[in-house]
Write a structure and sequence with these properties.
By secondary structure, this protein is mostly beta strands. The protein has one helix spanning 106-114; strands spanning 10-15, 27-33, 39-50, 60-67, 78-83, 88-90, 96-97, 100-102, 119-121, 126-132, 142-152. It has one domain (11-152): Jelly Rolls, CATH 2.60.120.
Length: 155
């Protein structure tokens, strides 16, 4: 996989937001950022928001961002966790917003979401895995918008 920098790229805003319910007690939903075959996405900015599950009184909810098909443990990449009552966010007036964040520190977080650290191909997409470990179903919209540079893959 390589990026063909000889040709032009174009910026695209990809909206992967969802209203799918994520049940309580550890259920999850994984969304893949996966371009068509022959293209590469270089992530330039991420906006994410998941409101705390309505009515929750215990537990946590978490977002993992990781290169799918490369690592099997999503906790090895970026993580944002919120306790019940906490909305988790990326890129809205700050880098990551939650109760526990990895990497820690806004400089590292901004580097991760703005400097092209995440690159997705059709074979190696980037995964956004939301896990609901609270005691209430997540029925609200999870906003996920990603600004990418779209390149043709080099042969």
């Amino acid at each position: 996989m390589g990026i063909n920098t000889e040709k032009n790229y174009r910026l695209e805003l990809i909206d992967l937001s969802t209203d799918d319910t994520v049940n309580s007690s550890g259920a999850s939903d994984t969304i893949l950022l996966q371009p068509d075959k022959g293209f590469i996405y270089e992530v330039k900015f991420i906006i994410f928001q998941a409101w705390t599950p309505a009515g929750s009184s215990s537990g946590t909810h978490v977002l993992y961002i990781y290169p799918a098909n490369v690592i099997s443990t999503p906790a090895l990449s970026a993580t944002i966790q919120g306790n019940f009552g906490t909305t988790i966010r990326i890129g809205q007036n700050s880098a990551f917003t939650g109760d526990t964040e990895q990497p820690s520190g806004s400089a590292s977080q901004l580097e991760l979401i703005t400097k092209g650290v995440y690159v997705a191909s059709n074979t190696y997409p980037v995964a956004f895995k939301y896990v609901n470990n609270t005691d209430a179903n997540q029925t609200g919209t999870r906003t996920l918008k990603i600004l990418v540079k779209k390149y043709r893959e080099a042969l």
